Amino acid sequence: MSIKKIWSMILILSLVMAVLVGCGEISQETVGKGLDILTQIVEEELSKAEDTGAIEENITEQETAGEGNLQVHVIDIGQGSANFIVGADGKTMLYDAGGEDSSSGRVVVDYIKSLGYEKIDVAVFTHPHADHINGAPTIFKELKVESVYYPKVTHNTKTFENFANAVQNAGLKFKTAKAGVKIPFGVTTAEIVAPLSNQYENLNDYSATVKLAWKDTSVLLTGDVEKTSEKEMIESAYDLDVDLLLVPHHGSNSSTTNAFLDKTTPAYAVISCGKDNSYGHPHKEVRARLNKRNIKTYITAELGTIIATLDGETIGFTTVPK
Ligand SMILES: [Zn+2]
């Protein structure tokens, strides 16, 4: 019952009392009792109203955000990686925001806003290469970012400097992305499973790799990890048996080893890469390894933005064509 209704009821009951008292057919004592009863009713109704309010609020929250599903939007950014994730209770995560140039930030912000979001609860940037971070300045300028995770590695480039400055200007500090860190992400489980070491020869191997799980469904977000980090993950104690694999390094043959696929056993895979890119991504060897295992693979260069919806039991896919 709404507060408005309760007040209407108080008003009606008061009028009834006034009439009764006015008619002189009821003693002052009875009126006193009547008021006590009225107070009781209102208190009861108020407590009911609180309960109902809470339920209504929960329903609204669920309906407007994720509807109890975990959604992974692999945004078609050309040659690069930008992913927007909506947790099962509506919390939001950005996992990389980079493309061929800094205009990728505009694409990502417009996409996120078109879905009705203005806030990023958690941003994860995997490693310092431009195709993963060059959209960051626009992100931090136009969206409210609550926290940012990034591995302990720097890079001597203007793009990296712009990225670090954008984080600082937003009044944020990097939280270190390394294996074992559990990211607060509402009801969705989010854990960083790599990097497992402090130093690598290859910048790609620093990639912050995140496992997201919602009930019985899960996804592994891998940045650009290569053989070295893959091997560490394979040898780690982490349960990396997932349903969906965001294929490392845009489908480069330097990653997605047979052993990594044996460890992760995905039923589905998504590759983020640009059409006719100069690297030849995804490499045919990777496609062959995925095909051999009957892993259903979706590629942004062919389909545009790919949305995976994990409902806790199964995974469904939709696309937003170019
Ligand atoms: Zn990359």
UniProtKB/TrEMBL annotation:
Domain of life of the organism encoding this protein: Bacteria
SMART domains the record matches: Lactamase_B (SM00849)
One Pfam assignment: Lactamase_B
Gene3D superfamilies tied to this protein: Ribonuclease Z/Hydroxyacylglutathione hydrolase-like
SUPFAM superfamilies assigned: Metallo-hydrolase/oxidoreductase
Domain Metallo-beta-lactamase: residue ranges: 79-275
Listed InterPro entries: ComA-like_MBL, Competence_DNA_uptake, Metallo-B-lactamas, RibonucZ/Hydroxyglut_hydro
PANTHER family membership: BETA-LACTAMASE DOMAIN PROTEIN, DNA INTERNALIZATION/COMPETENCE PROTEIN COMEC/REC2
Name of the protein described by the UniProt record: Beta-lactamase domain protein
